[in-house]
Structures are given as C-alpha cells and as structure tokens.
Amino acid sequence: MSACVPTRIDDSSLTTDAHGPHSPPPNRHRRFRIAGADLSASVAVFLIALPLSLGIALATGAPLQAGLVAAAVGGLVAGRFGGAPLQVSGPAAGLTVVTAEIIQQYGWRTTCAITVLAGLAQLGLAYLRVARSALAVSPAIVHGMLAGIGVTIAVAQLHVVLGSTPQSSVVDNLKALPGQLAQLHPAALSVSLLTLAVLLAWPRIPGRAGRAARKIPAALAAVALATAVAALAGLRLPRVDLPSWSSHALPQLPDGPMLGIAAAVLTITLVGSVESLLSAVAVDKLAAGRKGPRVPRADLDRELRGQGTANIVSGALGGLPVTGVAVRSAANVHAGAVSRNSAMLHGLWVVVASLLLVPVLDLIPLAALAALVMAVGIQMVSINHIRSVTRHREVLVYVVTTVGVVFLGVLEGVGVGIAVAVAVALHRLTHTRITHEEDAYGIHHVRVRGQLTFLAVPRLSRALHLVPHGARVVVELDGSFMDHAAYESLQDWQDAHRAHGGSVEMTGRAGIAASPAHGATQGGKAAQEDLPTRRRSRVMEKARAWGRLGEPTVASHSCCRPWTPWHNHHCDRPGHTPEDGLPSGHQLASGISAFQRDTAPLVRGELARLAREGQRPTQLFLTCADSRLVTSMITSSGPGDLFVVRNVGNLVPLPGEESGDDSVAAAIEYAVDVLKVQSITVCGHSGCGAMQALLQSGGQSDDQAGRQATASRPEEPDGVQTPLRRWLRHGLPSLRRMADAEQPGARLDRRGPADDVERLCLTNVVQQLEHLRAHEAVARRLADGTLELHGMYFHVGEAQAYLLSDAAPDGMVFDQVGDAPLHDVGKASFDQVSGAPLEDSRA
Q1: What is the C-alpha to C-alpha distance for residues 106 and 116, in angstroms, rounded to an integer?
Q2: Is residue 624 part of an annotated ligand binding site?
Q3: What superfamily would CATH give domain 431-508?
C-alpha cells in the first residue's frame, strides 16, 4: 500500500500539440535532439553492460564478441523498435544456461541460426497479440526458474574462479569440485577474490567518498581493479582474447534433429519473452514512481516485436540471444533517462568500444569475468523472492521448479513447476476446512475455510447437524467461491433451523453479517416469512453471505460496519437499546469484544509475523488527532504499513521550539533514523478545530494568540498559559504565511478554498512540511535522496483526499486523488531489484 499514491494527470496534458489549432503544420524534418539526461544515463548503462556482456558470453561458451554484438543490437534495435522506452536489452543471465546447452549440443553457428528462428517466433507471438498472457505465469515458477539458472551459473563459474574449466552439467561440476579444490590456481583465485571483494564493498563505502565512488558501477570498478592488479603484478592468467572481426563466426543452417532444434527455439522464445515482458512491466512501475517527465507506458506487444527483431539481427550477426534486462533498465531509470534514446546510445557506445577498445579489453582476466558472473548467479537466488513465495504459500512450486531447472534443464524444470502449480491450485480449490465449536455464551460457530464446492457438502452437512435445534448459530464463510450444490445445502439447512426456532447469522471473511434476513430474530420469526419471497431473495443473500453487500442486521451488535460511530449504531443489542445511555466504557468493551470475535482470527497470523519480524513501515504519517480522521481507512493501510503520529492540528514544532515537549521530534528521528521510512506525509483535514482557534487569534503575539485561541473555554481564566495554548503557538507560522500577500495562496486543483478555515488548513500542511525540512535527520535523508515529503488534505464532508502537487510552479496546489488503477500505485516489486548492485533477470 501507499498512502501517497501518485497524482493522476489528465492525459490531455501529456499529448498537447506543439502548435495551436490554427497554426501552420509542424515541420516534418525536425532535427534529431538528444536530452542531456538521456546522454548521461546511456553512459551509466554502458559502463554496466560492457563487463557483464563479456562475462555472460564467457559463461555460455560463446565467442566473447557475441556478447558485445548482443549488447549493441539490444540497445540499437530493441531500443528503437521496442514498446518499453526505458527498457535496456542485451545478453542476460536468464538465458545463460539455455544458450550454453544449445552451444554444447549444436555448436555456435547453429545456435546463431536458432536465435534467428526464436526471433521469428517472437514476431509471430507479437502479431497474435498474446504478450499479456505471459504475465499469467505464476511468480513462484518465474522466481524458481531464475533461482535454478542462478545456481547453475554459480556452480559452473566457480570452476573458472578456481582456475579450471566447467563441466557440461551441474552434477558433473559438483562431482569435479573436490578435485578442483585440491588443485587450486593461486593467481586465478586471488584475482577472483579481489573482484568479489570489490563487488561487495563498493556500494558500502561510507561518507562523501562513497557517494562519489558509487557514480562508477560496482561491476566496472571490480573488473577494472582486478585487471590493473593482474597487469601490474605480472600474473599469468587466461585473458580476454577478441579475435579480428573479420573472422567473426556467422550463423549457418541448423544441423541436427528437427525435434531438438524446435525445442531449443521454443525454449529461447518462451524464456526470453517472459523475462523481457516482466522486466518491461517492472520498469513501468519504477518510472511511474519517480519525479520528472512522464514516460508512455510499455506496449507489450510492440515490445515483443522489438525483442523478436533484435534476436533476428543479433543471431544473423553472430550474437547471443537478446532479452530485456531488469537491472540495466533500473539503472537507466535511476540515471534520469527520459526516452528510448538512452538505450540506443548505450548500444552505440558498445559498438565504439568494440572497435576502438579491443587492446584494453584484451587485458581483462577471465577469472575476473567469471567472478562477476558467479556473483550475478548468486544474486538470482533472491531472499526477497523466497520471502514472497513463502508468504503466499507457494514454496513447494518454487523449490520444485528450482531443483528441476538445476538437474533437468530449464524447459523441463519449468514444465515440472507448472504441473506442481496446477496440482497445488486444484488442491486449494477442493480442500475446505470446516469446524464447529460452541463458545462460552452458548453460541455455535460453524467456520468454513476455503472454497465451498459439492465435494465439501458431506462435511458441511455433518458440521451443521451438530448444532441442536433452537440454538443461535454463526456461520462464517471465508472463501471466494460457492457452487450451487453447496449453496442449496446451506440454504435448506438454514430454513429448517429457523423453522425449529433457531437463529442463523451468516458472516463473510471480514466478520460482516450477511443480510437482514439471515440474522432476523429469534423464536422463529424468519420461519413465518413467505417462502416464495425467501426463495426469490436467495441470489442476493448468497452474494451478501460472502461479505460483498454487508448490510446491518438486527441480531447482534457485530452486524454494524466497523467504522460506524457508537452513537449511530441502530442494531438491537442484548439487554439494552441505543437510548439507554450506557457509559462509553461499555461501548469500548463491546467494540473490543467484537474485534476479538470477528477480526482477531483474520489478522492473528499477520500480527504474529509482525511480532516476529518487527515493524518495518515505509511511511511516517503525521496527521491531526481529530476523531473523524481514520488513517487506516483513508489510506487502505493495515498493520505494519504506517508509522502514525497524531497531535492537535498536525503540527511539527521547529527544532528548539518544542517548549519541553519533544514527542514529535523524537517520533520523526525514530522513524527516519531507526525505521528508515521512505517518505513522510503531513495530512491536514477540513474543519480543523486548531485552525479555527488560530484564526480567532488574529495573528497576535505568541502569548496573545495562545490566550485567544482558547478564550472560548470559560473554565480557564484569561492569562493562564495552558498546555493547549502553548501548543497552538507552533501553528502561528502557518497563520502568518497565509496572511502574507507575497506568498502564493494554497488551493485545490478544481476550486479555491471554501473559506478562511480551509485556506489555513491547506497552508498549514505546506508550512509544516517546511518545518520538517528543518529537522536534521530529515534534511540529511533529503540530501541523500532517500526520503520524500508529501502533503495531503482530506475533506471530511466529501470523503475526498487531495495530494500536494509537484507539478505546480508555486507548489501550493492540491490535486484531487481519483480511483487510480492498481498499476498506478504499485511499485514494490521492482524496488527489490533497483537496489541490487549487479544483475538480475526479473524484478
């Protein structure tokens, strides 16, 4: 979740013509212009791609020039014709094992022809417009495939690191490893260890020197340093040997069994396509979350056409298969690229280096490249991916796919993973847990966990018949599907139970009552209803039973929506009516009891996980203590999402002016320095009482304003400095800012403030953001670029949220938040990759 979703911008602002409606037509021969951001980003991506392209070519057993050809073609061809403007394509670790197997079986020149055929197959899939279907593959299968490929790469390159050559399979490599350890090559091992040490330490260099050093990619720094040490020490090691381009091997017609050739083409097509499309989606999320010019979203069918064209060209020129590469694309976005020109320029720099820097490239030890690729393989076994599949209970699919890829091959391992995923899905569809228990109050609870199909009807019937006649029953349905047989069985039992004087309350997965009819009254009133009327309402009752139409019932106080205020509850509670005037303590205890009964069973697992792992919120949410502002509701957040600080007026005292109350400053310091939150949001709201009090003070001196702000409270004699008066002094800068004619006025995007109170509420959000920037911890994180500040305004009467816009010139406009699609607000999956120093194959 994210409390600060990106503000949607009208599409018309993105496609505005450069000329007016009555202007002459634009010049069709415009000059080709390259933005400075694209130029700098292309250099950054080139520095990452150059050593990795050589390393991947080494790992596949292909000629080293093949990696450079694939990198150049991926930049120039896929960058120009692809549908993801910011995606960078080239040779990727995800295809390393597949390509190595094909080279060993058919030879390099036939592998080039297979790459051409795979490109043609990708073009066919693109014209069939099936690109989006690739996103239907289970993430556990994709993660398991990448992990298996990573293990295979790491084990193979370990032999090169130790100074030997890898075998043809993982099993053979593992068998040969003891003998290799007994015959170490000190020179190769020392260069490899130096490369790995630089890779690990480079992103962790502290201070100003570290920030300067990180401008150079860790991969380039590691290879360059290892090359320099090997050259200066005069170590005798196998090095890169780029033969003349005149002798570069080109493809030949496939020579081998047609079935095997077809399987190889299919493998490269499927693995490369899925990897490219998933990377394109992840790049979209990353680009949508950054500030700056908006970039068009990826056209996945066009991206598949671009990848197919690039593979045809790369194979025809003797290059490796091409695919979209996640980490190079992430580096491209982080470097500020704004168009596809960045990827194309990166390909141009590869061409220039391949022609002019051959003597320099020939100095690189193969052990350094092997260590680099081995680190890439290890990183492909992502801890974040393992946590994700564990959380979604798909560890079995992940493990089976990984083991299958390692010991059987990529295509076979993925096939086994798909079969296991289907079996797991069928098991979950048919596995339903039904329990019955009676609580201390004599209420019978029948809980159904899972999908309710005809296969579960016998067990459901047995559980329901354990309930005695005339008893009060709560049936909890926690699932997303109920077929006709199960529904009829449940409905018939419900009618019979009510006819014998019992009461039935249906609740969905959130504990919301099913419908008014379900929990009507005790004593059999429901049985006296007209039977045809009940039959006609069954379809609606069925929908309500799953919590989709949660309307209040009259059987229990749990029927009211959880956010309904206590004094607005109109359901019959046992033993009293809403007019009884019961003390608030009783209401609180009743609400807690409802939580323990309805909500606690649903969140207990998640809270147990948070108790074990500790809190890791991504945002500090600072808002007013007003009881009408329910932060979890307006941000759709849950346990562990937000670190919330509330006070009167959502005020942030300036450092040194806390007047003995350091609670807000302490919370800010804890959130920023200890919890490492990524953003801070200051949220104001309409009708704020603190802002009304400040307006009544009329901008007087601090002491006068504090007294005037609480003058409406007769029990406090004038002149007494109460805690409330002292606290409200921190809002005086907002009042002065609003009164300053030279300052732009805060406003909403579609209308101005309704009155002075709303104007001050908006201005106060902007002013408190300024106060935040004055805190040392916040200023430090802002300077590092690791923290964002957001302003938010919630109109209580309209239930409408507004976000402070970055696009407005004066920074004082709050944009209305609409119903953003899911892809506009989700970016977490790619955040896992964007922090990786080297290479991955999928976000």
Answers
A1: 15
A2: yes
A3: STAS domain (3.30.750.24)
